[in-house]
Write a structure and sequence with these properties.
Helices cover about 30% and strands about 20% of the residues. With about 300 residues, it is α/β, with parallel strands linked by helices. The longest helix is centred in the middle third of the chain and has 15 residues. It is globular and about 55 Å long.
Length: about 300
């Protein structure tokens, strides 16, 4: 499919639903393929809504500290040089940025989080807390299991990267700066919330559905795509030699800045429409399939 390829400048990958399987693991063939690409001189970039605290372990698993890779963090508000252990923060959110939209989401009775580097402030409405209590009892989770929701469930343990979790009832309890705001809700509610926020606040924020149940709100003008362009300029990467992979709305901004973008097989139709190519799903190791299709492997 891809003709004669020798080496890519970079492979840029979303994490959840793209590089990772449903158990948050990198599958063996994918890991081996990406390490092989690095040995040929290709740089890896992990592009995620997560901060570096939840990405570094994967970067080291892929030996990016050895070969020199990068983290494109929190949907583009920062990037991290893994080999040099250097972080570059481009933008964060302060009280005047957070309070209007956080208060709006509290009024909508959504679980809403203000996320910082290694923790989060979590507002959980009473009706959602009741759902969590039922689920917690059914699953027989230990006493110290967090109450925070995640992209796939009303209860998720993210303490590996966000150990500092504070449950709040009032906006005054949030400490600044933070990196982003996110909500956890059922899919239908999340879809409507994205539209509601955009209608209410017009062009004040970037709003992305990172997966069907998770919505993220970031500073205006910052996205994975915008920061990828910055990195491509810094490192002289050719847009024809950078492959981007993703499955969520927050990945679409990366698709428009390179020639070869790939939506994962299980991605939403909107995401597939924006990509140059559609590969197999994450559980079918779609990254490896695409690299083989283009004779990279």
């Amino acid at each position: 499919m891809g003709g004669e390829w020798t080496m890519l400048d970079a492979i840029v990958m979303d994490m959840d639903g793209t590089l990772l399987d449903p158990n948050n693991k990198i599958l063996p063939e994918t890991k081996a393929a990406l390490i092989a690409c690095q040995k040929q001189g290709t740089k890896l970039v992990l592009a995620s809504g997560r901060s570096y605290t939840r990405l570094l372990s994967y970067a080291k698993e892929l030996e990016m500290d050895v070969y020199g890779g990068y983290l494109l963090e929190v949907d583009g508000i920062a990037y991290y040089d893994v080999q040099k252990d250097e972080r570059h923060v481009l933008k964060q959110m302060y009280k005047e940025d957070v309070e209007p939209v956080f208060a709006y989401l509290m009024h909508k009775n959504c679980e809403t989080m203000a996320v910082f580097n290694d923790g989060l402030f979590d507002y959980i409405p009473d009706h959602i807390m009741e759902k969590k209590k039922v689920l917690r009892n059914a699953q027989e989770y230990p006493e110290d299991f967090p109450w925070t929701g995640g992209p796939w469930s009303w209860l998720a343990d993210m303490r590996d990267g966000y150990p500092k979790i504070t449950y709040i009832k009032d906006l005054s309890e949030i400490q600044y700066p933070v990196n982003k705001i996110q909500t956890i809700e059922d899919e239908e509610v999340t879809t409507q919330l994205a539209l509601d926020i955009q209608n209410e606040f017009k062009d004040q924020y970037e709003v992305f559905r990172t997966c069907p149940r998770e919505l993220e709100v970031l500073p205006k003008g910052y996205s994975k795509g915008a920061t990828l362009v910055r990195m491509m300029d810094m490192f002289s990467w050719d847009k024809d030699k950078v492959f981007t992979f993703g499955d969520g709305e927050n990945d679409v901004s990366m698709f428009g800045v390179v020639t070869h973008s790939f939506a994962m097989g299980q991605a939403m139709d909107y995401v597939k429409e924006k990509a140059a190519h559609v590969t197999k799903s994450n559980v079918e190791q779609g990254i490896v399939a695409a690299l083989k299709d283009f004779n990279i492997l």
